[in-house]
Specification:
The protein is an alpha/beta fold. The chain has seven helices and seven strands. The strands form two sheets. A five-stranded parallel β-sheet has the order 1-2-3-4-5. Strands 6-7 form a two-stranded parallel sheet. Helix 1 packs parallel to helix 2, helix 2 packs parallel to helix 3 and helix 5 packs parallel to helix 6. The radius of gyration is 20 Å and the shape is globular.
Length: about 210
């Protein structure tokens, strides 16, 4: 589920200066390839650009993406707070709308390494839309992520778990994606508001039990 981005993040308090390392010819080749992909995708008026966890630390790609004048969604698997801070500071510098997705980059991701409690901490730390990119077998972590404040859920989809490729085992089949959408809708209804009130259905019970 992707929602419309409308973000006004606060400026980072600390700006980190990093010394750039000299790149090998192969690294330069890969960098040019990624930047060519970035230039290509801009021809299609995309509503946002998604940067995967593998490129969270790709400084040049982050910098060029931040200049594209479209919202950026970035996954944060295989990262520390410092790595995420560095990427976010680039978006802040350019005034880029952005969203940050908590993520575990193992395929499939084990439940005891998901650390979903990071989600509310991310919301407080970056004051932006925070989501969850899930690579686990099942639906429960994505539903829990919504309960913890995630506003974007990213899941891979497949036609068959037995197809060749790294992603398929941890992807959702079409019927599971539909089921996830319904369960997420239920979660919003279940969570309700933060006001402690006597509900409409309780009023009849209250009259019966309290007179």
């Amino acid at each position: 589920m992707i929602i419309e981005l409308n973000i006004n993040g606060d400026k980072m308090n600390k700006k980190r200066k990093k010394k750039r390392t000299k790149r090998t010819p192969e690294q330069m080749k890969q960098l040019r390839k990624k930047q060519n992909s970035l230039n290509f995708i801009q021809n299609y008026n995309v509503p946002f650009i998604k940067i995967p966890s593998a490129h969270l630390t790709n400084e040049d790609l982050i910098e060029e993406s931040a200049k594209c004048d479209v919202p950026i969604i970035i996954s944060t698997g295989m990262s520390t707070w410092e790595m995420v801070d560095n990427a976010v500071s680039v978006f802040e510098k350019h005034g880029t709308d952005y969203a940050v997705l908590h993520c575990n980059s193992t395929y499939p991701a084990p439940h005891d390494e998901l650390n979903l409690n990071i989600i509310p901490i991310m919301k407080e730390r970056y004051n932006c839309i925070v989501g969850y990119s899930g690579h686990e077998y099942d639906l429960d972590p994505s539903v829990v992520a919504i309960a913890l404040g995630a506003e974007i859920i990213e899941r891979h989809i497949t036609l068959d778990h037995n197809m060749w490729g790294t992603d398929h085992k941890s992807s959702l089949e079409v019927h599971a994606m539909d089921l996830l959408s319904k369960r997420i809708s239920d979660i919003h209804s279940i969570l309700g508001s933060n006001e402690k009130i006597i509900t409409e259905s309780e009023k009849k019970v209250m009259k019966k039990l309290r007179g």
